[in-house]
Amino acid sequence: MLVLGIETSCDETAAAVVSGRHVLSDVVHSQIELHAEFGGVVPELASRDHLKNAEPVIRAALARAEVGLTDIDAIAVTCRPGLSGALLVGTQLAQALAWSQDKPLVGVDHLVGHLLAVQLEFPGREPSPAVPFPYVGLLASGGHTALYRVDGPLPSDIAELGGTRDDAAGEAYDKVAKLLGLGYPGGPIVDKLAQEGDPDGVELSIPMAQKDSLEFSFSGLKTNVMRWVHEHGKPDNDKNLRDLCAAFQRRVVDTLIGKALVAAERQSIDTIVLGGGVAANSELRLRGVELCRARKVRLVVPPFAACTDNAAMIAYAGAALVQAGGDDRGRLTISPKTILPRLTQKGGGARVSASPRPLRAR
Ligand code: KG4
Ligand code: ZN
Questions:
Q1: pLDDT tens across 239-273, in order?
Q2: How far is ligand 1, taken at its centre, from the CA of residue 220, in Å?
Q3: pTM (2 decimals)?
């Protein structure tokens, strides 16, 4: 089945053509430069830019896959979570294409896409076997950070095990970078500096250290960095800056992997899969594999292109919905919230501990 995927939920306009696990084309137009001077995504600018680029990006994806619109069997589009205006551009365009071609259309949850992205086979890369279900999905992006039990490709196969009570991991990277005057998005910049720093050179607290909790909290760590800057002044591009970035990164990586390992153990699952933009982080990928190996758990790290926002993961997740008989033509709605039920409430509410028994997906 040839599926055209469309993704416009935040600051990437993306389209892809996917057949099964095979990515035939994957086109991403990033808006990073557009938003950089504001230090974060400006929703109105994002919508206008999607409007300008969605059509050429879709045309490019079809051309690169060497297929026409009439060859496509189904269309999948991100319908949640994301910026409303941005989501509307993609979903309206997808509806028009689906009606004009008389092909099924499915709305895909962006987080489900990230959790399944590991299954994709990109052209020019060594073929790899599909990752068997169930696995623990560690999703860390700019807007979300949570652990999931993934029993299959449908949203009903996926259950949250715990998430962040405040900032997402990527958001913490972006805020720390802003604080240090390093630019946007912060993740890749802090990552690069951290690689040359000493993670023990600066003392920072361990975020949400309670061993039995599968919840995250990164705002305290960010405040810790802020306090350090107040006390020592803003570090220039010198050893102090690199050490501060390295210490911050070490805390984030150890927290993410440590909690993913607790989740895997409690669920009796021996595979953890990374997803989301922060999964592009060099230390998370390298140190993560080592930390997991020491506990006899396999950490599966998707290629970079599968970690950051793309439409191939949307097409792949959409194919499962189409196979299950889905067709949202005429009733596709958008939402800023994920369809996956949330266990952790942001801000307040009761703490979630890891369940001692394996938790079956609904
Ligand atoms: O998944 P994504 O592309 O968009 C969202 O759905 O949010 O993730 C973007 C986030 C940003 O916060 C960015 O700073 C972070 O991923 N990021 C990284 C790295 N590359 C991107 N964080 C840490 N290290 C990186 N190398
Ligand atoms: Zn994303």
A1: 999 999 999 999 999 999 999 999 999 999 999 99
A2: 19
A3: 0.92
